[in-house]
């Protein structure tokens, strides 16, 4: 399904309910599978979370689990099934997923005693896992890898009979996601410590039943920040449910978008985004090492505002659903952008939209579809394969209609 977004303005005041964070939900779903007396509210309705739920349901063996494009599910489930005694599974995914590396996590689990083998190409899914009791408790891995590898190990740690001592070698990437995982562990009663490059997680032996409400997704909020930034002064969008002391690294949006003319107010588990003025910046310089998932949104916002940006710390974007940096370069150039990318950075020079009715390819990447949508405030665009948003935000197109966008299925 392709969608045409016709140039329009947003309603002056709108309100949107955003479902729970995919990142928090998927972590908590795994913990719920390990500790059955955890209950969850406001969970994500994303494809990735649905994949997690389906995979964690006990099925007859042997079993093949297809996680499609869900990278988080691939990493978390690899660790989970490695600990499930006498259970054998094969985890596979989409063609793109079979190109995304899993070797670092597999080797870390093997250090703990796991039995995992590759079904096709060494270092890549699909993988076969023979679940067993893991008695070793010390593991080391590079610190600059995807935080999902690290979180996958931390999430199973409370079930290991000796807990886990994790040594991260080098400069750590995406610390907020690691801290999110540790905070969720703490919330269910797990004792943890994070000192320099050493993380310790104790075994959880006794615990009480717990109800956890998942905070809404800040990555999803980023697209509304972009919309408000590109809208008329006075535009307001209320989003729920959000916390001022969020566990999510992408909550840095509130600070970043202040310089792009968007004010954030917190009240009663809601945030109100308001266009308070026009930016007087010529260019934005940001290190997004701790929040790489919002890079696409910020780059498109800057292009829509006619200002430049230099974004660094983006090395993990090369192995996401697509090579996100290259995809951004190709699609923004179609619209008239002057943009260059490297393996870990993006530079957009001051340029403006010069083309209309451009079709944006999404590369099986939900964030490509949603990051480009706000440009409909400036020009008519077509989003190809628009249903890809279901990976993290199934209600996205309906929510755009609700705030005044003209959305037409092609």
UniProtKB/TrEMBL annotation:
Keywords: Amino-acid biosynthesis, Aromatic amino acid biosynthesis, Cytoplasm, Transferase. It is an enzyme of class 2 (transferase). Phosphoenolpyruvate binds at residues 22, 71, 100, 148, 324, 367, 391. It is found in: Cytoplasm. Catalyzes the transfer of the enolpyruvyl moiety of phosphoenolpyruvate (PEP) to the 5-hydroxyl of shikimate-3-phosphate (S3P) to produce enolpyruvyl shikimate-3-phosphate and inorganic phosphate. Residues 47-400 form the Enolpyruvate transferase domain. Its EC number is 2.5.1.19. It comes from Flavobacterium qiangtangense. This is 3-phosphoshikimate 1-carboxyvinyltransferase.
């Amino acid at each position: 399904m392709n969608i045409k977004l016709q140039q329009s303005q947003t309603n002056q005041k709108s309100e949107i309910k955003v479902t729970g964070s995919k990142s928090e939900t998927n972590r908590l779903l795994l913990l719920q599978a390990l500790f059955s007396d955890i209950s969850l509210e406001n969970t994500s309705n994303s494809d990735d979370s649905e994949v997690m739920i389906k995979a964690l349901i006990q099925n007859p063996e042997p079993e093949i689990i297809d996680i499609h494009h869900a990278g988080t599910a691939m990493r978390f489930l690899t660790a989970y099934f490695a600990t499930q005694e006498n259970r054998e599974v094969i985890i596979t995914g989409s063609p793109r997923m079979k190109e995304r590396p899993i070797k670092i996590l597999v080797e870390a689990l093997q250090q703990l005693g796991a039995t995992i083998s590759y079904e096709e190409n060494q270092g890549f899914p699909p993988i076969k896992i023979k679940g067993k009791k893991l008695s070793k408790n010390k593991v080391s891995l590079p610190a600059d890898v995807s935080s999902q590898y690290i979180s996958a190990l931390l999430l199973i740690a409370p079930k290991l009979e000796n807990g886990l001592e994790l040594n991260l070698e080098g400069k750590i990437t995406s610390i907020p996601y690691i801290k999110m995982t540790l905070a969720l562990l703490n919330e269910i009663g797990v004792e943890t410590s994070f000192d320099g490059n050493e993380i310790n997680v104790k075994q959880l032996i006794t615990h009480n039943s717990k109800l956890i409400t998942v905070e809404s997704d800040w990555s999803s909020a980023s697209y509304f920040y972009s919309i408000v930034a590109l809208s008329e002064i006075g535009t307001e969008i209320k989003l729920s449910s959000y916390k001022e002391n969020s566990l999510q690294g992408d909550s840095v949006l509130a600070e970043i978008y202040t310089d792009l003319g968007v004010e954030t107010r917190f009240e009663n588990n809601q945030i109100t985004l308001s266009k308070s003025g026009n930016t007087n910046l010529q260019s934005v310089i940001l290190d997004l090492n701790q929040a790489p998932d919002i890079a696409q949104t910020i780059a498109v916002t800057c292009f829509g505002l006619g200002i430049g940006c230099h974004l660094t710390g983006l090395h993990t974007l090369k192995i996401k659903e697509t090579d996100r940096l290259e995809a951004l370069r190709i699609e923004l150039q179609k619209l008239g952008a002057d943009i260059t990318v490297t393996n870990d950075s993006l530079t957009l020079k001051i340029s403006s939209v010069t083309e209309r009715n451009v079709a944006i390819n999404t590369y099986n990447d939900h964030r490509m579809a949603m990051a480009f949508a706000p440009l409909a405030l400036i020009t008519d665009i077509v989003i190809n394969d628009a249903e890809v948003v279901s990976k993290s935000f199934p209600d996205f197109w309906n929510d755009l209609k609700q705030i005044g966008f003209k959305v037409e299925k092609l």
